Amino acid sequence: MADHKSAMKRDRQSKKRRLRNRVNKSKMKTVVHKVEEALAAGSEEQARKALAQAVPVIQKTAAKGSIHKKTASRKVSRLTRRVNRMQPLG
């Protein structure tokens, strides 16, 4: 690590941001995992509820800059598609 005052500040900021991003990503991964568990269990109602809770968390994670906006959109799209496939056609 450098001895410059600005480099030390940058290091402190980076550590704070890294922790903040880790917390946000962890929350997002948890809600995504809950949707996947409901899908694995075969419970359409639980999957829809879990998806409804997951979408805002994923979007908020992107809004905070922890993940890219298009990454969030892709995750939401794929989860939604998987939940919709559970529904019988008719």
Features:
mainly alpha; 90 residues; single chain; Methane Monooxygenase Hydroxylase, Chain G, domain 1; 3 helices
List the helices and strands and how they pair.
Elements (H helix, E strand, L loop, with lengths): L4 H37 L2 H20 L5 H18 L4
Helix pairs in contact: 1-2, 1-3, 2-3
Notes on the structure:
- This protein has 90 residues and is an all-alpha fold.
- The chain has a single domain (5-86), classed as Ribosomal protein S20 (Methane Monooxygenase Hydroxylase, Chain G, domain 1), CATH 1.20.58.110.
- It contains three helices and no strands.
- The protein has helices at 5-41, 44-63, 69-86.
- The protein is elongated.
- The relative contact order is 0.13.
SSE class: mainly alpha
Overall residue-averaged pLDDT value: 94
Identify low-pLDDT runs: none
Please report the total strand number as a whole number. 0
The percentage helix is over 70%
CA-to-CA gap between the ends? 63 Å
Task: Write a compact overview of the structure shown.
The protein is an all-alpha fold and 90 residues long. Helices cover 83% and strands 0% of the residues.
